[in-house]
Amino acid sequence: MNRKTLWLRAAAPVAVLALTLTACGGSGGGDSKNGAKSGTSKLQEDKAESRELATGESATSPFKEDDGKITYSVLAQKVDVGTEADTKKMVDDPAKAKGFVPAVAHVKYTNKGGGTVASYPSVGDNVEIYADGQRGTILIGAADDAPGCESDSDIENWKKGESHVLCETYMVPKSAKELSVRWSAEDEGQPYSWTFKNS
Asked: 24, 85, 184, 196: which has the fewest C-beta neighbours closer than 10 Å?
């Protein structure tokens, strides 16, 4: 587990990184004006269990893009965990995020066939981070310009054989011992899951 601050999205304005937290994985609804989704989601509710993969093991699955059904190889590479000081820089009301730290999942996607994705791939949208079995809180508006992360808006003509690393930022309790990155092609069925120790 890499614990560093280099990935902090310094260019992103704090105003759009507002955070609403109930309990981690709680049942509160999302609050789009505050820029964060808290509580449960259909992805969480329908997938109490997951298909656990080993570190370095990839999953292969079809995924429906606007350009058609693309088969991807998906691999969660790592989770970078920040500090409470990082949290204060990323949210507009640090009091709401007391005890939480940002966690950034780096997921590598490889187009294995089915066509070319012209632009704005959606394959990176179905990522969640769980902390000790409880879903974290997604941080809406976090920029994706951390080292090693790419922006889906910059990807064009994604051809077979090409890979891209897309990232997702969640807030998790700083005391979490294990972080799981979960990805699914659809909103139904068991997600693939990779577990990382938070040391």
From this structure: 85
Measure the CA angle with vertex 123, ends 121 and 127; round to 5°: 135
Q: Cα dist. 73→33, 49, 143, 166, 176 in Å?
A: 34, 21, 24, 13, 28
Distance CA 21, CA 98 (A): 9
- CA dihedral 31→99→139→14, nearest 10 degrees, is 90
pTM assigned to the model: 0.78
**How far separated are the first and last CA of the chain, in Å rounded?**
6
Q: What is the dihedral of CA 139, 140, 142, 147, to 10 degrees?
A: 70
pLDDT tens digits, one per residue of 106-138: 999 999 999 999 999 999 999 999 999 999 998
Cα–Cα distance, 65 to 176 (Å, whole number): 34
